[in-house]
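[#protein-structures] MJ: dropping Phosphoribosyltransferase here for a structure pass
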Amino acid sequence: MPKIPVKVVKWEEVVDLSFRLADILKKENFNPDVIIAIARGGLVPARLVADAMGVYDVLSLKVEHWIVTASHTPEAKIKYPYKVDLQGKKVLIIDDITDTGDSLILAEKHVKENFNAGEIKTATLQYIKGSKYVPNFYADIITDWTWFMYPWNYWEDEINLLKKVMDEMKTTDIEKLKEGFKESYNIDPPIPLEKIMEEMKRRKII
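AK: finished. structure tokens for Phosphoribosyltransferase:
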């Protein structure tokens, strides 16, 4: 059976982490003119931080790395690269978490080369200790690697995690899969597995 440490993150935790991050930025006196969210994980945190700090210019960059839950692609890539002239403005790049660090490394490089920013800083809700990239700001530090299931990823993560269990157990029996899911990840799925299986059928995954 696949054994992956998983933590389900609730909406209120996301809000708390985002506001804590905003407080850190205020204390450090870094007031960005523009916030760039790394899509998709950084979209919600970026909007919450922007609201807490009164930042009205929010952009995004689509960086692909973790295509399948807990299984990253060989290297991060920007799916839709573009250029914009920010005229020397202060820029804050936000993602949900720093794991390998590849997404932030790539995003920061792209912004430096294409956005004409005056100053660039990076921030995440959570930083996993041991990542090859340490963001300038983060609200929480994680010492033991864990896959964090954020609310914007509930469906996607549960589908991918359940598929791992199905492939291992060679069954579609929902009761057996519930047992296998609990044994593998030790979480109560935020979306019932019955609904997840229905969606997997709709997407023709099974």
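MJ: nice. The mean pLDDT is 94.
AK: one more thing. The radius of gyration is 18 Å.
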